[in-house]
Amino acid sequence: MAVCSEKAVLHVPSYTQEQTGQTGYLAVLFFISMHIGDRIVKWYEQQGRDMPWREVHDPYLIWIQEVVMQQTRIEQGVGYYERFVARFPDLKTLAEAPLDEVLKYWEGLGYYSRARNLHAAAQQLVSEHGGIFPRDPQALMRLKGIGPYTARAIASFAFGAETGVIDGNVLRVMARVLGDDSPINQPRTRKAFQGIIDTWVQGVPSRAFNHGIIDLGATVCTPTQPGCLLCPLETACVARAEGHTHLLPFKEKKGPKPVRYFHFYMVHDARGARLIRQRPAQGLWGGLWEIPNAEVEAEAFQRQLDPRGGDYCFSLRHIFTHFEMQIGVYTLPTPAAAGWEGQFVSPEKISTFAFARAVLNIFSRWEKNAPQTGLL
Predict the structure, then answer these.
(1) How much is the CA Rg of the chain, to the nearest whole Å?
(2) Whole-number pLDDT of residue 371
(3) Do residues 238 and 112 share a domain?
(4) Dihedral angle computed from the Cα positions of residues 188, 191, 197 and 203, in that order, rounded to the nearest 10 degrees
(5) What total of structural domains would you count in the chain?
(6) Tens of pLDDT, residues 331-349
């Protein structure tokens, strides 16, 4: 049933009946004549979501918004976006800011490499491009941390480039409209869909089209119980016609995430100052601050056996993209931490440092437990 093709001729996907199968082939011929782009733009003008950045054409602000919203719920991301651009309102301000401060303003959003890449790319834009954003997606992708999605979003939303912008919502809409059961988490599917959506956007306002198809996936063509009767593409949708909306999009299942076990240590001096240390610039939580910790074997974690003789307090877990971290929190007396790198920071000043969400969760749980257990 797959109908993907990576080629395009005269802005029309080059499909053959042999490539797509009878149903898919007829569907392709049908949707070409259905003015997909016009339908989406008209729907967006009437039903599109009201976002604080939708009328903004400043490439810097669009870039920040797109990066903030990656892997982030809109209701959570809006506040972070507004706070970030209030402190770093333009490219020059961000490029000249200390990385520690940028990370602090990113605190709680996770995926901290995004913040480090923002800072590095801002410096790259200032030093190599005179503070001017390239208009071409390929040139944008040569900047630190800017991939195909963000590059096309900037090119479309800031400069009106006729290029399609594909996120998870758009993949869902396209898979259903095309009746395509290719795995959407495979690069070849995204590449094929990019060629198709680039034909849909030809001849229509790029900003409105891309905002529209993203909104359509977010509000109408939802993962479950899509509102097909409200969809402007209902009569062009193969999955709707065949009753397969519940089966699409198809995603190849991944195996379970590996689990890693860590002991984190709360160490306080006689004044109540807490021992913290900064992580290396590269790698997990790069450049952020943390409390001392060490990876342990599963048995030691499960039996609450600490090799340093710490006293067990509580456990929690944190989910990363590629693994699950099980965290056991222990207290250690100050002498037991002798030789560890780091610095003792008073409770009043500790909020000025940037910590990963997992460490913030430890602090929050600690504060709740301390009054009940007598922990300092």
Answers:
(1) 25
(2) 46
(3) yes
(4) -150
(5) 2
(6) 998 877 777 889 999 999 9
